[in-house]
Amino acid sequence: MTAAQPDDGSFRIDTTRPHPARMYDLFLGGKDNYPVDEELARKVLAIEPNVPSLARMNRAFMQRATRWQAQRGIRQFLDIGTGIPTSPNLHQVAQEVAPDARIVYCDNDPIVLAHAEALLRSTPEGAVDYVQADARDSAAIIERASKTLDFTQPVGLFLVALLHFVSDEDGAQDIVSELVSHLAPGSYLVITHATHDFRPRDTEQVGSLYKSGSASLHTRSRARYEEFFTGLELVEPGIVTGDEWHPEVGFPVEDPENIIKAGYLAVARKP
Q1: How far is CA 123 from CA 35, 101, 138, 139, 151, in A?
Q2: Most buried of the four, 42, 132, 215, 252, by CB within 10 Å?
Q3: Per DSSP, what are the bridge partners of residue 129?
Q4: If you average pLDDT over residues 114-128, what whole number do you get?
Q5: Model-level pTM?
């Protein structure tokens, strides 16, 4: 695997400010984080102790959505905002079903790049690549990803726990629209997103904590979330808030009793 990245030194690991990718790794039980990440994570957990359960649910949904698509013939996947690799990662799930699957990961945290170099290994039949880029630079992502993926054929596009770190002013909707415009018919869009619909006070407090780090939290209502899928066909059961999306595919949540309503999950097909 080769990782496409800028060569101007603009991507450096900043250990002085918490980063959502490293905090997500911590919530999943990983060790690839720094004291500054742990400090902010403790404050988040003091408000919402079920965040690790939510992270595991989110992860399990990603794995089910990957397997579900691979079982239906999708052989190309683009995962933007991938985070630090946690086994089984998207490429492992996809290539277990289809060894010839081709996957491109994208993130803007250099620590993710460091682990991608070491951990994201492909089957001989398939391919795995990594693009170091900001999600807001859609053109660069598509250009670099096209070295591995054929965008004239269907692609599974994953934006998992990403868009709630992108404000409307930074063009969250435009990012999705631009990326989807490059997808061939028969492609799928996967989005998970935090919401303030159910626990507005706690969500506001958590959002205030994230502002002290390297990212701000921009939760959205169900109506705003649904707008990301404009022009696409939602896959049954549509928009869900927990572990209800195709449980028959596998990857069950370990602690379903601790799952709370805090975000939306959905998959949609481009007609």
Answers
A1: 35, 9, 27, 28, 21
A2: 132
A3: 104
A4: 84
A5: 0.91
